[in-house]
Design goal:
By secondary structure, the chain is of the alpha+beta class. It is 20% helix and 22% strand. It has helices spanning 5-27, 43-50, 99-104; strands at residues 88-94, 118-124, 134-137, 141-145, 150-154, 165-169, 174-180. The relative contact order is 0.12.
């Protein structure tokens, strides 16, 4: 089937007449349907309809509200303009090894970091006490700071920040943070 130039011109004139009629009829309509008319209702309208009863109940044992905790993106690495020096830190991996792994080689563990279960970060803050420090840990970031020093690093593996343990060693003036690693997200 082939179309000539005349056929295409006739089709074009039919379509343009139809469009002009649609534009004239919709111009008189105040409540015309627009692309914004389709889809789910706006969030503001939903919240207004739900009212204050839709808000979450506050747990009396909570230390802070969820809206007070900054998102992970808000805990930024070191600010370029921050003049505070970076404290010395070391990062270690830890794994649970049994005698069958060490002496017999029967277990499925090997010395690589993929067999490790925990990550330990040791940060030395000379001349500081525990009350001077602030520690924030998220799934991918660690930020330890005092008034005179700042350490903000990205962690090499995702960690469970809620299952971590932080201890202060006053003799060495060292903060020891042990974090369980999340293996499912490697």
């Amino acid at each position: 089937m082939s179309f000539g130039a005349g056929d295409l011109l006739a089709l074009n004139s039919l379509l343009t007449e139809n469009q002009e009629e649609n534009e004239r009829s919709s111009a008189g309509n105040a409540g015309a349907i627009t692309p914004a008319s389709f889809g789910a209702p706006r969030r503001v309208e939903q919240e207004a309809q739900a009212g204050p009863a839709a808000k979450k109940k506050k747990d009396p044992k909570d230390i802070w509200d969820e809206d007070e905790v900054p998102p992970e993106e808000a805990i930024l690495p070191e600010d370029v303009n921050d003049a505070r020096p970076r404290p010395k830190y070391d990062m270690y991996y830890r794994q649970a090894v049994g005698t069958e792994d060490v002496f017999l080689g029967l277990g499925d563990r090997h010395p690589g970091s993929s067999s490790c279960t925990h990550m330990t970060v040791k940060v030395t803050f000379p001349g500081h006490q525990m009350k001077d420090l602030d520690l924030d840990v998220t799934k991918h970031k660690l930020r330890a700071e005092s008034r005179s020093m700042l350490l903000a690093i990205f962690l090499p593996m995702p960690v469970d920040s809620d299952g971590g343990v932080a201890k202060w060693d006053p003799k060495k003036e060292q903060l020891v943070v042990t974090l369980p690693m999340i293996k499912d997200e490697w």
